[in-house]
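Supplementary Text 2. Reproducibility record for the structural model of the 223-residue chain.

All settings were left at their defaults, and a single model was retained for analysis rather than an ensemble. We include the record here because the model underlies the residue-level annotations in Supplementary Table 4.
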Amino acid sequence: MQLVIRRYRHSDKDPVLTLFSSGVRENIGPCFRNAMTSPLNLAITLALCAAGHLLGSVLWAVVLPGAWVALVYYCCHELYASFVREKFQTDMQDIPGNYLKGPGDCFWVAEAEVEGRTRVLGMVAVVAKQSGKERYGELCRMSISPSYRRMGLGLRLAHTAVDFCKERGFSKVLLETNSTRTAAVSLYQKAGFSHVASHTKAYTFDWIVMITQVSVLILEKHL
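Retained model, structure tokens:
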């Protein structure tokens, strides 16, 4: 399979948005599994089950913990769905205007011919940032089609973004991902990134973040 990494074109918008949305939403399942196995949520589930038994009803012993599990799933779904909604209304609505306007910005897609058709299999972007006198690049929107992972495409896209930042004279490359995306974190570490900080700010309510037990990881690579 001959793979080409090139700059974004207007005709890429639909496949890019589809890849972005599916790449974010696929974290809902792992997020739910992680949340339900956390000590806090396990304790709440067991406590609700016990409360149902104390009420003398098998039905309540099932309904109360079942309602909690449903709430946890809703929170996991909303955490990622709200992120997609926010980005569809902001930067992903106008990719050329937000990612291709400045000399320190770029948006790439990886494409290949699959079964006689040219398909977008991955993407990544860099946005120039300034902090005092320091200029650095923020790597974002990395996503790979599930069928074409573990083939080196993620590393190729990461290196494309890093090389671009080196050419622009940036001091470092910074990115954010979340604690659910363990495979992505491993990929970034292979590309030379190190975990430097974490936070829990999200595009949704704080109580949803607390229930899901998800944190945002900040990684960076000095150039």
